[in-house]
């Protein structure tokens, strides 16, 4: 979906919108990378109960970092 929006902004030569959307593109790439890393760990441990428990504990230790706000304080 985000790629469709970027493609539309480019087609319309709407450079401001394209620039605005780049943050969302970067965020999407980062989230997909994170999800693939978790999936890789789960595939690695397979059906090992101990491995799944360790992976679960590791994931529970993650700290949520809220997105940065813009100049005016908006998100």
From TrEMBL:
<dbReference type="GO" id="GO:0008199">
    <property type="term" value="F:ferric iron binding"/>
</dbReference>
<feature type="domain" description="Ferritin-like diiron">
    <location>
        <begin position="1"/>
        <end position="46"/>
    </location>
</feature>
<protein>
    <submittedName>
        <fullName>Ferritin</fullName>
    </submittedName>
</protein>
<dbReference type="InterPro" id="IPR012347">
    <property type="entry name" value="Ferritin-like"/>
</dbReference>
<dbReference type="InterPro" id="IPR009078">
    <property type="entry name" value="Ferritin-like_SF"/>
</dbReference>
<dbReference type="InterPro" id="IPR009040">
    <property type="entry name" value="Ferritin-like_diiron"/>
</dbReference>
<dbReference type="Pfam" id="PF00210">
    <property type="entry name" value="Ferritin"/>
</dbReference>
<dbReference type="InterPro" id="IPR008331">
    <property type="entry name" value="Ferritin_DPS_dom"/>
</dbReference>
């Amino acid at each position: 979906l985000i790629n469709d929006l970027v493609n539309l902004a480019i087609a319309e030569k709407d450079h401001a919108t394209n620039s605005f959307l780049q943050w969302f593109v970067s965020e999407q790439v980062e989230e997909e990378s994170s999800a693939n890393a978790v999936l890789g760990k789960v595939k690695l441990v397979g059906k090992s109960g101990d491995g799944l428990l360790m992976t679960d504990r590791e994931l529970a230790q993650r700290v949520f970092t809220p997105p940065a706000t813009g100049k005016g304080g908006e998100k």
